[in-house]
Design brief:
- This protein has about 475 residues and is α+β, with helices and mostly antiparallel strands.
- It folds into three domains: about 110 residues, Trigger factor ribosome-binding domain (Alpha-Beta Plaits, 2-Layer Sandwich); about 100 residues, Chitinase A, domain 3; about 200 residues, Trigger factor, C-terminal domain (Trigger factor, domain 2, Orthogonal Bundle).
- Helices cover about 45% and strands about 20% of the residues.
- It is built from 14 helices and 13 strands.
- Strands 7, 8, 9, 10 and 11 form a five-stranded antiparallel β-sheet that branches.
- It is an enzyme of class 5 (isomerase).
- Involved in protein export. Acts as a chaperone by maintaining the newly synthesized protein in an open conformation. Functions as a peptidyl-prolyl cis-trans isomerase.
- InterPro entries: PPIase_dom_sf (IPR046357), PPIase_FKBP_dom (IPR001179), Trig_fac (IPR005215), Trigger_fac_C (IPR008880), Trigger_fac_C_sf (IPR037041), Trigger_fac_ribosome-bd_bac (IPR008881), Trigger_fac_ribosome-bd_sf (IPR036611), Trigger_fact/SurA_dom_sf (IPR027304).
- Belongs to the FKBP-type PPIase family. Tig subfamily.
Amino acid sequence: MKVNLEKIEKNTAYLSFEVDADKLEEAIEQAYRKNAKRFAVPGFRKGKAPRKLIERHYGVEVFYEDALQILLPKAYEKGIEEYNLEPVDEPKFDVQQIEAGKPVLATAEVVVKPEAKVNKYKGLEVEKTVYEVTEEEVEERLKMMQEQNARLVAVEDRPAQDGDIVTIDFKGYIDNEPFEGGSAENYVLKLGSGSFIKGFEEQIIGMKPGETKDITVTFPEDYGSKELAGKEAVFNVTLKEIKVKELLPLDDDFASDVSEFDTLEELKEDIKKKLQEDAKSKEERSLRTSIIDKLIEETEVEIPDVMIDHETDNIILRLAINLRDTFGYDLSTYLESTGMSLEDLRERYRDAAVRNVKTSLIFEEIRKAENITVSDEELEEKIKEFAESSKTPVEEYKKSLTPQGIAQIKDMILTDKIFDLVIENAVITEKVEDKIKNDIIESEEVKDEVNTEDENAAAETENESIPEKTEE
């Protein structure tokens, strides 16, 4: 068997194969033994007809396709190994000659991983955002805790007002016919939250407990459900209860009730410490983002479309898993609620996919250039760290790891080491921000920064539907 690399052009390798005639004969015989039962030849039971007779009856080429399926993958694997190619897609074969007693002549066209030319990765000039935690932020976080721990007190001596938390029963009708998802009982709603269609909550204001009222609203033209979009609906609403939040005073009793601390000052100190930890984590992420931006600027690479398509698929798969695990619904439901098609979603994440692929190729080149590896001790330490984080015995955690899981942990360690190398050799300037927005300070699970571009789109699911339960 001869395999030649004819050329590599625009990330496509062209291989030619010549397979000996005797290897073709072996493959045809193997194909015959595998498929003999498929052929009916008069005078023979299925599977018992001689090969020559089947070939005479059905044509001499009858086993060629199966023989090629045996020969070509082996020839292709030999070529990939011999010329150290890294395919990123399935090969496209073209057969020039296949005939008993003669060599098989064929070619394969295969897209291979491109090499990134990283012009510079040491001495990069990057900016790091530094966040200073202020007393104002501590007070804001304390007020959030006060809101979260507020008591709900029933109100009976006045009608509903904006900001009240009401319990309602409702039934929705379009053209006097009820529609799916348009009714609920004992539904808790914060007036003014925007959880319902525009105009619904406003018409509850002024109602008293026990009162029933018809509320007329119109679904937006761009509403996620085509059956409801633009339609006028009438909701028969019964207001069952009105409650308001009663805030607890911020004192030592509050601190001991909502935390492990005995005094308000101790609670404030803990809040400040956690904000500082969150700030440090966000600073690190901002620095890594700046580094990736700069590395991409310093790199020349031509990425095959197939790699971008594959990474787009990966991003959407991660989104689908997140939707399922976090919100309990599937991707098709998300697409319907946002009014997007799958192609719209793919286009939305294409730039993120390009960035991810570029970053991965850049990191691979740096790893090779610096001979960065992961030792057994480093892997063991990281596994131990994850086990402790998940409060699982180390040996039990190890048993739960698949080969893919171990590979991901190794990649994570490599990523950290590459970032450390680049940061160590970078020229870093600092930009000071004196406030950290509450909506971005959340504890995060360890993740691979190389692939952080796929944003949490699940959180963007439009809230203009009937309805999502308001948190008390």
